[in-house]
Here is the input.
Amino acid sequence: MLLLWGCHREEDATLVRLIETDPSRALDHELIFQTDVVHDWELPGATKSEGPDPNLPLLDRQVDFGAARVQEIEAIVESMPQGTLALRWQTSEHPFSKERQIQLQAEHQNPGPQKLFRFDVASHPLWAGQISGLRLYTDRRIRDSVAPIRARVLSRRVDPEGLEKARTQGWKVNLNREIRNALLAPPGKEIVRNLSVPPGAKLYLGYGLQGGIRQTVEFQVIVRFDNRPERTLFSGLIDGALIPMAGWHDAVIDLGDLVGRTVEIVLLTKTESPLDLATGLPLWANPEIVGRDHRRTLPNVLLISIDTLRADHLSLYGYERLTSPHLDRWAKTQAVVFENAVSQAPSTLPSHISLLTGLNAFRHGVSHDPAPASLETLAEILQRSGYRTLAQTGGGYMHPAYGFAQGFDIYRYWLWGYERLQEFPNGIEAARGWIQSYRDRPFFLFFHTYEVHAPYRARQPFYDLLTGGRKAPADLLWMTTQPAGAEEGFQPRRGTDYRYGSADPSVTTSRTGSTAEAIDLYDSSIAFVDEGLAELWKLLEALDLDDDTLVVLTSDHGEAFGEHDLAGHGYLYDDNLLVPLVISFPGDRYAGHRVERQVRSIDVLPTILDAIGLTPPVDIDGRSLIPLLEQTAESFPTEAWSYAANDNFGTALRINNRDKFIYNDAVWAPIRGQEELYRLDQDPGEVNDLSATAQGVDRLREVVQSTLARQSRGLLIRLANNEITPLTGELGGDWVGQTRIKAPHLPCACLWWSDNDTVRFEVPPRSRYDLILDANPATTGWIRLRTDSGSSDPGWEVERQLTLDELDEPIAFELLNGGWHSSASTNSELGTGVQIRWQRRNPDDGVDLSSAEADLRRQMKALGYVQ
Here is the structure.
C-alpha cells in the first residue's frame, strides 16, 4: 500500500515520501501477466549441436516466430548449484552471437537441485525480427553435470485486474542492473498525492522504461490547487526505440512558489499510440519531496567495503610495501584506525549480513540463501530517519537476489565476470556522481568492490612500482580448489596452486603461477583501490562535505597466501579474519587515534548510529565503539565470534587479542568436533595448536557448544532414543546439503552422506542430539524413521514429506506404547522420536544474549582468558 510519510526536523525541514519507504518485493510478473505457451519442450533427448562451436549447447532448436509475439523464455535444469546459463538466438537476418544473448547465474535462481531460469527476452534491445533458432549454453566446466529438463517459450498478456492491483503498490524494479523503489505508470493512469508543500521544497524522482518498450513515452509532473488550471512542473521524454535498456533518469523540481499551499501532485505518462504493456511498463522511482536542508542534524554516512582485503597488506597496518599511501595520509589526519578488527565470517554473504545488521553470523543464520526480510539492516534504519540510501556493489554474493537491496532507495550491482576490470573504476565514478547529486540532503552511500578479490590481475603503474619493474603478466591468476569429498568431510580447501587464464574461469592456459606472484598482483590491486578512494576523499573536501560525513572503511574478510598451506578464504585463521577498520567521524573527532583493543565488524552499525545521534537496536550483538574512544565504556565485549558455516570449518572464539579457540560443528566423521587452540600474543601465526594439552579446553568447548545451540538459526531437528536398540533414519530432499547440516554437540559419528543425496543417521540407545539445518523455507524434503536397525525389513516405520514454508508450527513423531504418534506440539519432553521446528531470531534474543555474554565473561575470567 502506498502512503505519505513525513519526517519533521529542526527548522521545519520536512521529508515526504510518495511511496512506501522500502518495498521488499521484486516486481511480480505473475500478478500482472497471464501467459500463453508458444513452445514447450521436454529436454532429456535434446539435440546437441555438431557444429564448430566448442560450447555445445544444452538445447538447440529451430523455431519460427516473430519476436514481438514472445516476451519470456523459461528453462529448467537439474544439478546446477552454480555457474551461468545463457540463452542465444538467431533471426532470419542475423546468426547466433554473444550480442544476442542473455546470461543468468544459477546462484541467483530458486533453491534446490532444479533451477528455474526466466529469460526476459522482451527487454533485450536485439530481440527483434523473425526468430529462427534458440540455444541454451552453460559453463564448459560444469556442462557434463547439468541435465536439462524443460524449456518453454511464453507469450504474455496483461491481466487488467492484476495490473490495477500492482499499480497501487510499490515494487523493487531492476533497470540495467540498478534497482529502485518504483511505481508502475501505465499511460493515462494518474498517480495523485495530496500534501502541504513545506518550506524550501524540491521534488526528487526518477523515471524509466522497461527494456521491451520500443516507442516514445512522455513523463509529466502536474500540480493542481485552488481550482486553478493545472500546471506542468516537469516533462521528460524517453524514446525506447532510440535508447533501449537506458536505465533510470533523474529529475529535481523546485517547488518554491508552492510553499505553504495544499496541492495535488500528479504523476502521469503519455504515448502518441497505444502501448503494448506486455512488452514493458513505464516507471516512476523514489518520488519524494524534500524540504529545507536538514544536513545540520543528519551527517552523511559513507560505508566502504573492499572485499577480501586483509589488514596486514596495507601499509597503514605496517606492511612493508607502500600499498596504501593515500589511506595512510587520510587516516593520520582525519580518522581512527582499529588495529585488531575481527570479521564475523570469512566469506562475503554472511560477513556482509553481519556488517549491515550488527548480528553474529550464526545468529542471523545467513550462509547459503538470501537474507530474510525480517532482518533489519542499517539501510532500513537510516532510510526511516530521512536518509537517501544508495548502494554501489560488485554483485556476485552482493547481488540483490541475496536480500541486500533491502532498505536501499537505489541499489546498483555489477555482473560478476562482466568486464571485470572495469568494476572498480566504474563504481568509483558512480559513487562520485551520487555524492554530487545528493549533496544537498543527507545520504547513506554503501560502496563495495571485488577489485582485490581473485582472480588477481596486474594494476599499473602500481605493479611496476611495488615489484621494482618486474614484467607484469597479461592474464589473470586463478587459484585452484581441491575436490571436497566424504573423506575430507565435504570441507573445500583451496591449495596454493595457481594457473593463469582469462576472465572466464573455464578457460585457462598451461602456465602456472606461484604464491609470490599472487601476492604481487593482489598488492597492486590494493594500491589501485587506494588511488581510487583518494578521489572520493578529494570530492568530499571539494564539496565541503568532509567535516559533515562519517566515513567507514573495512572489509568482509581477508585472504590466505600459503599460511597453513591454504589460499583464498573461508577459513578461521587471522589471515582470513583480521580486516581493516578505519573510521572518520564528522568534525575529525578522534582523528589520529590508533586502537589496539580487539573490536568486531558487528560494532560498525551501532557505532554509525551512535555517531549520528540515533539509538542502536537493543537486540543486536554489536556495541558502539565511541565509549572506547572516549574512555567511558564500563565494559566492552572481549570475545569475537566468527562462523564459517558454508564451508564446514566451524566457529572461532577469539578472546581479548590473546587466545583463539576453533571448534567444528560439522557432522561428518573426519572433521566432527575438531578443535584448535592458539595463544595469539605468543603465536600470532597460529602454528602451535595447544588444544590437546592446555587447561580449560573442556570449558571453552562447553561455552561454544552452548552458545551455538542457543543462538544458531535454522531448522532444528531434535532426535532422541530411549530404547535399547538404535533409532535409524534418513533425511532427503532439497533442504539437506553437505555444508548445510550442523550439530553443536554430536556424541558420535552418527551421520553419513549416501550416494543418492540423502543423509543417513543413527541415534544410539539412551542418547539424544540436535541437528541444525541451514534450510531455505522454499524447499521441501522428507524424513524416515525406524527403531530396529537390525531388521531385514527395509520398510520405514515413519515416512513424512515436509514442505518447509508450511512448517509454521513444530511437528513431532514419537514412539509411545509400541506405536508411532504425530503431534503439532513440542512442549513435552521427547522420549523416542523426532521434533522439527524453526529456530529463528526473535526480539527476546536480546535478553538471552545479555545474560549469555555475562556468563561467558565469568567463565573466561575463571579460565584466566579475561582480566
The first strand starts at residue 5 and ends at 8. Residues 515-542 form the longest helix (28 residues). The two ends are 54 Å apart (CA to CA). The chain has 14 helices and 47 strands.
